Amino acid sequence: MRKLLPLPSLLLLPLCVLGQDVHPEVQAALDWQIPKNECEFKVKRTNVGGTDRNFQKAMKKYTKCNEKYQAGLVSERDNMMGVAHHGLTQEQADIIMGHMGAIAIILKRNDSEAAVPESVREANHTSDFNK
Hints:
131 residues, 5 helices, disordered N terminus
């Protein structure tokens, strides 16, 4: 014999479902903000020998830092894609998709020529460091 839930509990069921807390992974995806890229290209223009070596060393350090930053963004994007299995409202999905779109824009910009900081482009195109 089946037991039926009393009518008042059936009426409260939707309120219980709607009032559930948001899963921590979903909340983290909703609260996500674009992290600042802390990578800096530091090279001093000097007339001392080894400047090209210093430039290459600084470029390698900057590139490695920037690749780490991008890898972090890709990881965050992948995490956001994985939260859908927790169930999302349309509003939550829209917010998370907006974050993923921002990541895509940043990654696309970092692959372009304009993504290279002016100081790097200037140092790279200047062969005479005495200027």
